[in-house]
Amino acid sequence: MTDANDQLQDLLNNNKRWAAETESREPGFFSRLLKQQTPQYLWIGCADSRVPANELVDLLPGELFVHRNVANVVVHSDLNCLSVMQFAVDHLKVRHIIVVGHSNCGGVKAALYDTRVGLVENWIRHVQDVRHMHREWLDTVPEARRVDALCELNVLEQARNACHTTVVRDAWARGQEIVVHGWVYGLHNGLLEDLAVTAASAADVDPAYRQALAAVKQRYAAG
Fold it and tell me: Sorted alphabetically, which InterPro entries does this protein's record hold (predicted)?
């Protein structure tokens, strides 16, 4: 128990040091942060601890609104995700929703290989739906690259799902500027890649999806 408490104390000490360094670097930072939250971006990403949203895009607290879950899933029955989206779009007036997956995702890997992982299996059924949808093509991808291929396909499908939510559709209908994007993060190199499934209106969704899907398939066919 003592070791565990020591580890937690390390976190508290780290926090004190971070707060002091931040205030020293930008005097009044926390006072300003207390008064307003005006992010331009909503990041919907994976809960994986190796993918820290703010750090990857070098943004400070208050500049990025974040929702994370296993395998960056957006489904119409998830009131948690939809509530975050609704608050971000209707109240914070974000201009961009970015669905971000990452290479070698454990949730995607479990969905691909039907790995027994307990309760979370019910959640990654959504990713298995993506696998089933593209199964014939996935079977042509070399096994060493199949997980990452499904990671990218999952981003495309979840970005399309985001476009079809009532939150985004209603925003577009009233003329609010919202652009949905799909990105993937490479654990091996620390780089984000835009998969170009970019939609700024309802009319953009299907063409953007088809073009992005064709690009994924071409990239993996190229080896």
Answer: Carbonic_anhydrase, Carbonic_anhydrase_CS, Carbonic_anhydrase_sf
Distance between CA atoms of residues 161 and 133, nearest Å:
14
Segment (H or E) for 138: helix 135-138
Q: What is the pLDDT of residues 86-122, one digit of tens each?
A: 999 999 999 999 999 999 999 999 999 999 999 999 9
Q: Is 105 annotated as contributing to ligand binding?
A: yes
Answer yes or no: is 188 a known binding residue.
Answer: no
CATH fold for domain 37-221? Beta-carbonic Anhydrase; Chain A (3.40.1050)
- Listing DSSP states for 160-222 in one string gives HHHHHSHHHHHHHHTT---EEEEEEE-TTT--EEE----BSSHHHHHHHHHHHHHHHHHHHHT
The stretch 43-57 carries a mean pLDDT of 95
Is position 206 annotated in a ligand binding site?
no
Q: How many Cβ atoms sit within 10 Å of the Cβ of residue 112?
A: 22
Active site residues: 46, 48, 50, 102, 105
For residue 158, give the amino acid letter: Q
Classify 58 as helix, strand or coil: coil
Residue 185: CB atoms within 10 Å:
24
